User: Fold these one by one.
Assistant:
Number 1:
Amino acid sequence: MKDSILEQELGLLKGLANNDKKSIEIIYSQNYNLIQALILNNSGTTDDAKDIFQEAMMVLFDKARSGNFELSCQIRTYLYSVARRLWLKKLNQTHRYTADLDDTQETRVVVDDDVNEHEEKDAEFEMMYTSINHLGEPCKSLLEAFYFKNKSMQEIAEDFGYTNAENAKTQKYKCLMRLKKIFFSQYKKL
Amino acid sequence: MNDLNKERDIILLDAVERYVMSNMTPDERLQFEQLRKEDSDVDQMVVEHTLFLQKLNRFNQWKKFQTSLNEIHNHLSVQGKINAPSGKGKLVYLFNRFKKTAVIAASIAGITTLIISGIIGSVTTKTPKDQFEILKKDIHTLAKKSERQDQEINNLKQSGITAQTPEIPYTNSGTGFIIDSKGFLVTNNHVVEKAQNVAVQNRDGKEFIAKVVYRNPATDIAILKIEDPDFKPLPAPPYGFTKKSTDLAEPIFTLGYPREDIVYGQGYLSSKTGYNGDTLSCQIDIRAERGNSGSPVFNSNGEVIGILNARQRDAGGVAFAVQSRNIFNALSDLKEKSPSDSILKNIKLNTKSSLIGLKPSQQTKKIQDYIYMVKVN
């Protein structure tokens, strides 16, 4: 019995790493209520619960993708520990933190390193997000088409109304240089 | 930087990208590695660009994952498999996400941030006020149903032929306006971007099925065509379209559907360029709300000068509009794409406004039947 649970969880993590909807859905539905209860019992709202749970899912996602996730505990325990840590930090930041969180029965593991690492990555994510949004159009859509949607220069030239792929390439180059400049100017401040 | 240098840089960067993404032939790869050894600048560029592409890739993976999370969250809460309140859409989430980012953005550039797709309204949300809205909509649907039943009975009496369209629950809305009497409307691309079904609703609450015939994410313009047997062609729109740029401080007004009823707003042109100097759009000072996306922006002559598409966070009434010359471009693009379409061929944007010299209230009266609510799901 124990083995099959372990196998099941490994399968779910593998699916998670590949952004497989079915796996994410299973993990989501099995753990959301637990974490929502934790947040609601500790002066949070349902919106907070959603944010915190999804952030914990991001931490798990990165962990699963890194490939070196040793399943030393169940997914549930891991998510719970991460969410708890994140919520404590948030309460601290907003000065709403009074004593320890009101929870006793759930088992927990130490996840401080993972959470810290996640926060660094999250800062980078925000930076990339703002950088891309600072670009303006058509640069934003053009770079997204090339790097995220894997469109060819030919397709991009047609979609954006450039006379040929060469012109589109020149435009892409300019946009990319701007993006890098914006991004790295913040990145170095870290 | 002179042109020759720039060209060299473009070629070099292209090579670096293909090298990093392993898109080189073995020969080319060997050559490139040689170059990398000899030229430390090239080597530095490879290192730096690899790092950047990694970050870009991770950003993309995260974004996709977040999208999945939100879809699943909504899906599960609607199905009741998790206890979260349902109906909170992705748009709202993006809005929340931005709150966090806004702090960073403001500290970097000293500029308040922009919610690009922030003004598509949400028809079904969970606050008490919105429940009221849902209620109102239910009544609407009921009224429509009985109207339809009456019509059906009539039809049965007359000929026995009935046309039945199933009710579709729409979740988000924006605004659109007629550009041609045969049922072509223009709105924002971000309003219809992820739509499966699109319908437009006139001032009387009549709903017509529409199809997206043109979309351009770069200019944020979309063209819709009403494809509904119930739709009867309108007289030509009274307003004109102008390619000329409007002068600073010139008064402008807009009509849109931030809620069930049409709403008039008044303001002035505050900058000839949009957010961050974007030349496709312009900046206006006007009250813009969710649901105003796609509203026409008129000058005092009743000429369309733009389409309202975004507002700036934390900056009062600052909003942005796509300049109307982009509508001209969109229409000619559309014509080029389907040269055999005879209806399309005859569409021309009216450049002469028949509203010159009228009072705002008179202008509004003549315009309002040409403004539609765009409903999507």
Note: Chain B touches chain A through 54 residues (CB under 8 Å).
Number 2:
Amino acid sequence: MSLFGFLKKETFRPAPAGQGLDRGILVFENTSEVIRAENLLKAWGWDIKVMGPPPEIRTGCDLVIEFPLIQELKIMSILVKDDIRPLKVVPVSSPLLKPVSIFQIKDFGRHLMVRAANMKLTIDKETLIIVNVSGGGCPDIPYLAQEMIGKSLRDAPSPREIGHTLCGYALQLAYEEIKSRC
Amino acid sequence: MLAVIGTVPIEDFPLVSGEATMEDDRIIIQGSPVSINRGTPALLAAAIKTCQTLGYPLPFGYLVGDTGLGNGSSRLYEYLSNNLQQLGFNTIAFHYLQPDVDWHNRVLFAVEDMKDRPILIADAGFMYVAKMSGEASRYNLFTPDVGELAFLADEEAPHPFYTRGFILHEETRAPELISRAYRHNNAPQYLLVKGEKDYVADSQGIHETVDAPVEKAMEAIGGTGDTLTGIVAALIEGGIGTREAAVIAARANRLSGHYAKPTPATQVIDIVKHIPRALGDIL
């Protein structure tokens, strides 16, 4: 077992997020930082959730990470070791906005389109080549489209890797859904 | 003159402003070329084609590079908030910018300080932030798809990503969603909703439904909403009333798609090429 695996299984005992009122949120400078933190914490086995911020700290294209507040020190330690520094940690007691979880599927015969929120991803079912990205309004979407279209689902970068915004995050959900179906 | 404001997906693309022209598959502003694939370049391409076809002056573009980090958007927001007051545009189409409520409000203040208030159109990120800021009713036209319409209809959602599940993003619900968006003051003077059927609506309800020709593949093609916004923006600049312009644009965009014989793998530039023919048929 690797050191990483050992630490993940033995040293830390992640508690589930979203239970009770003892929750906190980690606020970051931008969505890219949120995605980095999410990837890291999930890799360590923490049951954290990406959510929408409460209105009082909302600025625009925002995501926050909800976590069990009592685990703040351990979680901060993991983040800081990887040079990820939240702008602030805020306790919450009211429900946070949940990301969209409804997918809509359209089968065009040879092509399959999945929509998550405002984002649509279409592939060629025979070749698994991504043929189109549609919808969205944040500036990383034209960039993601440029990087993903023409590549196969296996070879294309995932929106999580190179996206930065909520639209990019929605495209990630469509990407995961389409991968689960093909 | 029509101003089109947005971003291109090249991080180090400088902030450029000037008359937008089109050469082959590229937009040129201030000597800087950018590919027409989707997003603001696709909007500009459709606006240029419409202006050329109808003999209108070419649109004036403001573009900056941004791949989602928001740095380019911030530069453009700052430039606009410092300079719009001195400019004399009749119509402004705001497009792909990183949503930021504070910057949006500063730009809107600058618009309010213009000598003659322009007709304001918003789509994409700028439409999101206009709704997010609670200032949607200050705009003349939004061009959402059905997913974005559900976001406008959800008075709690700050972004389409958070649209609540019970507000179903279904085409058949569009009339109900339009009504809800107006009820909560989250819609502009007119909505042009794009989808299997296109709707032109205001606070009184749906005035026009455009549903032919039908090309189901259009929904999958990135940039077809951007071309619709570009066509309607150019028509409004040409003096056609917003409501009538929205109907003509919906027809022209659908017809351009029809002439392209699209599949879900078609790219938007292949549709842009047919805009002159479509407008010629309709007008």
Note: Chain B has one domain: 2-282.
